[in-house]
Design brief:
Largest sheet: 7 strands, mixed
CATH architecture of the largest domain: 3-Layer(aba) Sandwich
Strand content: 15-25%
Structural class: alpha/beta
Number of domains: 2
Order of helices and strands: HEEEHHHEHEHHEEHEEEHHHHEEHEEH
CATH superfamily of the largest domain: Type I PLP-dependent aspartate aminotransferase-like (Major domain)
Shape: globular
CATH topology of the largest domain: Aspartate Aminotransferase, domain 2
Strand order of the largest sheet: 4-10-9-8-7-5-6
Radius of gyration: 21 Å
Distance between the termini: 30 Å
CATH class of the largest domain: Alpha Beta
Length: about 400
């Protein structure tokens, strides 16, 4: 209790009643509390721990880089081998067009940099985004949020933002010659795993092409195998002008990236030197962890099994209270009747030593996003708990 009291006294909380789980260690798919009791992680740190906790290869890479040097200069000035190796590995896995990288610390930073880059590259100011999307919490990212009540608390936000309905082809007409960029999630995560069909994505890509507007895909939460592909856009046969990655990219360490071609990223310094700089972006220890994590993800075939595991879990669910479910790979939303029922489900899961959560913009939905290394027996265990409620 003493440590929890210190937590409440010294650490700023982000909710009125924080979960207050006292973690002592983590390994594989489990977090351990102060009494060394194991809790199954069913949220992966909100999309960070796709490969699980305590991966030996990642720990070793962090230790090795830490022994060489931790930090040398602001991003983009010194040649750092581990950073280059990470970029080279990612480039090998991505379409040829996506071959240049600007590393930052967080998803919100990547969003802010993408907004600035799109305006520099096109000379336009309008940004088109989808309603009910979540892109982060910095002032720039907050400006892309459609919730009027939330927006009102932080006014004035950045101007020039136009909102459209996600998945609505008719709304694509609002992408015009005034549009610098469309910034969108491929799967709307915090809206409760909402997807659009291939026709929509093809039409959006064409509309951006027709008006020389940039297509910027936010894969901060859906990237690195979560949906059964390295990135979710690979399901739909399109290639973005800019790809944004984060969360799982760092394999547990803070890291994000803007990915584009060299000519596009050069706009960040050619038109306006130091237009977007970051002291710790692309930190060598984070890059070392990311490279080791990426290699582990590929070599362990976790991407290929994500769809199988998601489908397996979906078939296990037999609770009559479930109104609907939506899934892409091993990322799923389960809708219950209302928020009260969801809170009951979350309490029961916690009592059975399962750490679960909901979504920001889908108050009745249960988030299913365990580490990709989760075993079938663990999925069965959670499904049985849900079915017995």
């Amino acid at each position: 209790m003493f440590l929890r009291q210190q937590f409440l006294e010294y650490i700023c909380q982000t909710s009125e009643i924080p979960q207050g789980f006292e973690i002592s260690s983590a390994q594989g798919t489990y977090l351990y509390d102060k009494n060394n009791i194991a809790y199954l992680d069913f949220i992966s740190g909100f999309g960070v721990n796709n490969i699980g906790h305590g991966v030996p290869e990642v720990i070793k890479a962090i230790q090795q880089q830490s022994q060489v040097y931790l930090h040398s200069n602001v991003y983009g000035e010194h040649v750092q081998q581990v950073q280059i190796k990470l970029a080279e590995k990612l480039a090998d896995l991505l379409p040829a067009h996506l071959n240049s990288f600007y590393f930052l610390n967080s998803g919100s930073e990547a969003i802010d940099a993408a907004i600035k880059l799109s305006r520099l590259a096109t000379g336009r100011t309008e940004i088109v985004v989808c309603k009910n999307a979540y892109h982060g919490s910095t002032l720039g990212a907050e400006s892309l949020r459609s919730d009027e009540m939330h927006r009102a608390a932080f006014l004035p936000l950045i101007p020039g933002i136009r909102f459209i309905e996600f998945g609505n082809i008719a709304d694509l007409k609002f992408i015009t010659s005034h549009t610098a960029a469309v910034i969108t999630e491929v799967v709307q995560a915090e809206a409760g795993v909402r997807r659009a069909n291939s026709e929509y994505w093809q039409a959006m890509r064409q509309q951006c092409n027709d008006h020389n507007s940039l297509l910027i895909l936010d894969e901060i939460q859906t990237g690195l195998g979560r949906t059964g592909k390295l990135f979710a856009f690979m399901h739909y046969g399109i290639i973005p002008d800019l790809l944004l990655s984060g969360k799982a990219l760092g394999a547990g360490m803070p890291l994000s990236a803007i990915i584009a071609n060299r000519t596009m990223l050069a706009q960040l310094f050619k038109q306006l030197p130091l237009a977007h700089i970051t002291t710790f972006g692309g930190h060598p220890v984070s890059c070392a962890a990311a490279l080791a994590g990426l290699n582990f993800l590929i070599e362990s075939s976790l991407i290929e099994t994500a769809e199988e595991k998601g489908h397996f879990f979906e078939l296990l669910l037999k609770n009559n209270s479930i109104q609907e479910s939506r899934r892409e790979g091993l990322f799923m939303a389960i809708d219950f009747q209302n928020k009260i029922q969801l809170m009951h489900v979350l309490r029961k899961l916690f009592e059975q030593k399962v750490l679960a959560e909901g979504f920001l913009f889908s108050p009745e939905s249960l988030r299913i996003a365990p580490p990709l290394c989760i075993e079938d027996f663990e999925l069965k265990m959670v499904a049985e708990i849900i079915n017995q409620l």
